[in-house]
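Hello, quick one for you while I still have it in my head. A protein chain has come my way and I'm curious about its shape. Can you walk me through what the C-alpha cells say about the fold? No rush at all, and the record is pasted right below.
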Amino acid sequence: MSDHREEARKLVRELLQEALGNGNGMPASVPPPPVAAVHRPSTWSQPAAPGEVIGSPERTETVRIASDADLAAFVRTVLDRADEVRSGRLRFTLGGTVTGAFRVAHGAVTERTIKKAAEAGGRLVLGPGAVLTPLAREKARALGIDIERER
C-alpha cells in the first residue's frame, strides 16, 4: 500500500513540476523563433510546447469522484497507466457532480437540514462527526429521505 502512495506522490510531484515550469513559480515558455515570420519557409510549423505530444493519439477519459472509493479507484488507474499520463496520450476530465445527495460532515443535523436534503434530491449522507436529532429523524421519515452514514 505504501508503494502505491509513494508512486502517487512521485507522479504528482512530476506533474506539478511540469505544470510550474522552471522552478521559480513562472510557467515555462517557448522562446520566439529566431527568424521573423516573413523569412520562414512554407513548411515551417509552430514548435511544440513543453510537454506537448505530437503525432500520438490523445484520449480523454471522464472521471466522476463522489466517494473515497471512487478516489482510490482513480488513483489506482493513474498509477497503472502512468506512462500514458506522462506522455500526454491520456488525459482526465472531471465529470459532473453527483446530484441527489446532501452531505453533512459534522455537527447536529436538524429539521432544517432535512428540508435542504429533500430539496437536493432526497438523500442525506452523514459524516463520522454528524449527529442526527430525533426530530430530524422523524422529519426524514415523513419526507422519505434516505439517510446514509459514512464510515
Observations:
- Residues 84 and 90 are 5 Å apart (CA to CA).
